[in-house]
Design brief:
By secondary structure, the chain is of the alpha/beta class. It has helices at 2-18, 23-26, 31-36, 41-47, 60-88, 96-117, 125-148, 156-180, 223-228, 284-287, 490-494, 498-501, and strands at residues 28-30, 57-59, 210-212, 240-244, 247-250, 253-255, 262-265, 272-276, 290-292, 298-306, 318-320, 325-333, 339-341, 345-349, 352-355, 357-362, 365-369, 372-375, 385-389, 399-403, 406-409, 424-426, 434-438, 441-442, 462-466, 484-487. It has 12 helices and 26 strands. The longest helix has 29 residues, at 60-88. The structure holds 2-acetamido-2-deoxy-beta-D-glucopyranose (NAG) (6 copies).
């Protein structure tokens, strides 16, 4: 069956590539036939082919819309069931908060899938592709949360299986569409028109819509109030600029998924600090000091901090699920699980990131360029691991690329470094985790093995290193995993540069933040 499916897809791809551009819209089949082309035929058939139009022939784009519509219905019903389970739990029962977060995640699936069907989005094929795989990431994060608190026998698996399969089907169709051609897709190929974009040629010359000041001299005294003031109609792409004056703001901040294009800037990382001390118990999302879900977020010159400390376990300082977000000159500070790059295309430039273990993690599709990565002193016997990337399926476009970064011990770790085992660059969090370090300075605290197999994904995960330097960069004794690669061919490494990996030329210029599109070192 699997062989047959991939054979057919190869045929599609060939026909897209080799015949006239109109073949995309002229390739048609019955719904049942299309279902046979997906990885989960039964689920497809059950949710779609019952319809009395099942004998008429449709195009691949029509079929994609139908599988997405079916996934939306299913996500709504799963969300309702999760809500019921959440309400049935006693207050304070183990796992209750986590069910609460899962309800939000399922809500996020409905929201994001609706974007796929919304013609005003003018989505590019890559957008559709990332929006579809977001749903899979949200389900995974819910599941992991229960694993972390050792609640494995929850209803989550049984209520979400069909939704997962519908999403995988949609993703496979979207991959087939993209494999053909990026141009002349029926959804339009114009990309996003950023109207009324602030011209941030000098990044310090922002013109704030509102100002937050602790001393009452601004429009608001808390950051969240300023965020809540943004829910007004704005033109697509027009930024809402929030200036946060110096001070330590002790609060958790939440930017919801319908609040797009917020630009927040402070007076420097040592001066404008948002800080909280929540930790997780499996519920990573609720521990976050700062979380952003809306698209096109920008942060400049400020600090996001979680002070739960090395005893706090998983404690997120910054969670980003913001597509096409740019974080510039910021400091992100915590211990375990500091920076949760959950999903979508993200760009971090000249940031400082502090932590002990798995402190850059998630299923983000992210480039970290010229960042200072500081490993901190863990608890006695504690481990040191920089990344934990969370890509689960080969059809997902996500991964982490760290370029031109410095991986070194922080001030607290330096004097006691001999008491700890060496640091790993990463441990793959899901099957097809994908992480690359390139053109970076790796200090002597990096273990000669380089990578650790924390969760048994070494046979499928991809880990790459290219043109790094420093005492920890020697690849002679690295892990012998099948997909570990000490990259020497620049054409392979090029795939992980800003211009190719996150198609940065399409969207970073509108922010005015400087970036290196290709390689930094020759
Ligand atoms: C399916 O058939 C029923 C009855 O024959 C009809 O009422 C309904 O409108 C049809 N639905 C679609 C989607 O064609
Ligand atoms: C879950 O179980 C593992 C292994 O038995 C244990 O080490 C860990 O502390 C447990 N975690 C929680 C949150 O109870
Ligand atoms: C990935 O997409 C391809 C192309 O559409 C499809 O053949 C394959 O089954 C998909 N893989 C999975 C695991 O869904
Ligand atoms: C895309 O469609 C437009 C208008 O339908 C046509 O002018 C153009 O040549 C097409 N481009 C490609 C690459 O086929
Ligand atoms: C922040 O303060 C620390 C300690 O005072 C100093 O080492 C660091 O250079 C400062 N960073 C910036 C960006 O000003
Ligand atoms: C990293 O360290 C090297 C050598 O210590 C230094 O020259 C470089 O400026 C640092 N890079 C960054 C991005 O801080």
């Amino acid at each position: 069956m699997a062989m047959k499916v991939s054979f057919f897809f190869v045929c599609f791809l060939m026909s897209f590539i080799f015949s006239s551009s109109s073949s995309l819209t002229t390739t048609t089949g019955s719904i049942d036939w299309w279902c046979t082309q997906t990885p989960h035929y039964q689920t497809c058939n059950h949710h779609i082919a019952y319809s009395n139009i099942s004998s008429t022939t449709i195009s691949i784009n029509q079929f994609l819309d139908m599988t997405v519509a079916a996934a939306i219905n299913e996500a709504r019903s799963v969300q309702k069931r999760a809500q019921g389970i959440y309400l049935d739990y006693e207050p304070n029962a183990l796992g209750k908060n986590l069910w609460g977060s899962c309800v939000d995640y399922f809500d996020g699936i409905v929201f994001t899938l609706n974007m796929v069907l919304d013609p005003t989005e003018q989505a590019r094929p890559l957008d559709v592709h990332t929006w579809l795989s977001a749903g899979l990431t949200y389900i995974n994060v819910c599941e992991k949360g229960f694993e972390m608190i050792n609640m494995t026998n929850t209803m989550l698996l049984s209520i979400s299986t069909e939704l997962r399969e519908l999403l995988l089907n949609s993703l496979a169709i979207s991959v087939a569409i993209q494999g053909g051609s990026y141009s002349n897709n029926s959804r339009g190929l114009h990309g996003w028109e950023f109207s009324n974009e602030y011209k941030l040629l000098n990044s310090r010359n922002f013109d704030p819509d509102v100002t937050v000041a602790k001393d009452g001299s601004g429009d608001f005294m808390t950051v969240q109030e300023a965020v809540d003031s943004t829910r007004k109609e704005r033109e697509w792409g027009e930024r809402y600029v929030i200036f946060v004056k110096r001070g330590v703001y002790e609060e958790q901040v939440y930017i919801a998924h319908d609040v797009n294009f917020v630009l927040m800037y402070g007076e420097g990382v040592n001066n404008t600090i948002i800080s909280a001390a929540e930790h997780s118990g499996g519920d990573l999302k609720s521990s976050a000091t700062f979380q952003v879900w809306g698209r096109g977020f920008m942060a400049v010159d400020m600090t996001f901090r979680n002070t739960a400390g090395p005893n706090g376990g998983q404690a997120v300082a910054f969670l980003s699920n913001s597509d096409e977000s740019v974080i510039y000159h910021c400091s992100i500070e915590g211990y375990q699980d500091t920076l949760f790059s959950l999903h979508f295309k993200q760009f971090y430039k000249e940031c400082q990131i502090f932590g002990t273990v798995d402190f850059i993690f998630g299923n983000g599709h992210s480039v970290f360029q010229d960042c200072q990565v500081f490993l901190r002193k863990p608890l006695p016997g504690g481990g040191l691991v920089v990344t934990a990337q969370g890509r689960q399926y080969q059809n997902e476009s996500s991964g982490f690329s760290l370029q031109g970064c410095n991986i070194t011990a922080g001030e607290d770790l330096k004097p006691v470094i001999d008491q700890f085992k060496k640091a790993f660059l990463g441990r793959p969090w899901f099957d097809y985790a994908r992480t690359v370090f390139m053109e970076s300075f790796l200090d002597d605290l990096v273990d000669p093995l380089g990578w650790e197999d924390g969760w048994g994904h070494k046979d499928t995960a991809y880990c790459g290193e290219y043109n790094n330097y420093g005492p920890g960069s020697t690849t002679d004794h690295r892990v012998d995993w099948p997909n570990y690669e000490a990259i020497t061919d620049p054409d392979i490494a090029k795939q992980f540069t800003v211009v190719e990996f996150i198609v940065g030329d399409d969207w970073i210029p509108t922010t005015g933040v400087p970036y290196v599109p290709g390689f930094e070192r020759s």
